[in-house]
Structures
1.
Amino acid sequence: MSGITPRFWAQPLNYMRWSARERPAYFWSVIIAGLGPVILFTVPPIRHRLGDPDAPQIPLTYPIPAGPRKQLTGYDDDTE
């Protein structure tokens, strides 16, 4: 094993081969992080073509019923 580290810009393939052997955690984390933007633009169209629709939006407010509210009785609430 040579003690010389290949330079990235001079020999990128040799550098990637060296980093995959010597520093696999860094190498694979860079590979996976580089796939993030690719996945961002490729996965949603594939999902739609396979028939997986988007989830319905979560309501941000509670629907207020129309009309007056019913008066509750029978709970021993004589505060009025």
Note: Residues 9 and 15 are 9 Å apart (CA to CA).
2.
Amino acid sequence: MFLLYEYDIFWAFLIISSVIPILAFLFSGILAPISKGPEKLSSYESGIEPMGDAWLQFRIRYYMFALVFVVFDVETVFLYPWAMSFDVLGVSVFIEAFIFVLILIVGLVYAWRKGALEWS
């Protein structure tokens, strides 16, 4: 039978974890100084007056490099639990992980051939 009182700790945690950020935003909105002058609305770059327009176009290569990094970073997150329980899982899971790594290698070779790993 589904008993709600078994989930009291969960509901308390959910309510508290929802109320704390809401209160933080409310208090910061009430206590923060409000000053909208020309200095507040100007662009700021490390304490130096910005030179030129604030809207610059970046080359797509930087974004592609970041996406390739994220894909292979997430791949390690998926492989870590498999590696920790390798002795328990068996041969079928080894074959699945091997296919997963092969797909990632194919993706790496494709990105390499397309030049997505070249920084300059």
Note: The CA atoms of residues 20 and 84 lie 36 Å apart.
3.
Amino acid sequence: MAAAATPGVAEQAPGAAPQGAVPFDLSQAPNIEGFNPLPKARDETFKEKFARKTKENPFVPIGCLGTAGALIYGLRAFHQGKTRQSQLLMRGRIFAQGFTVVAIIVGVFATALKPKQ
């Protein structure tokens, strides 16, 4: 026969806090000694963030547009049977992708070296 629970004793998961005792109040922020939280920053919309990032590093969107343009025109030339033009545009796409990667790396280093305000 299975072990029976003793009557009158409520079963409790191991490590659980006793009923009625709450370790902290969830309705308020925790009070940590020596910590002063910064005011909540305003959330940016996608458009605002895109404009800010483009101003910080304008070469990344330029490289992305160049990559997409070379890819689209290269695929169009391939579809039309212009293999020579298609090959040149695919090489241009590789160049544009390399330009974009270099622009991202330079932007990361520039951001890291910029003094914090």
Note: The chain has a mean pLDDT of 83.
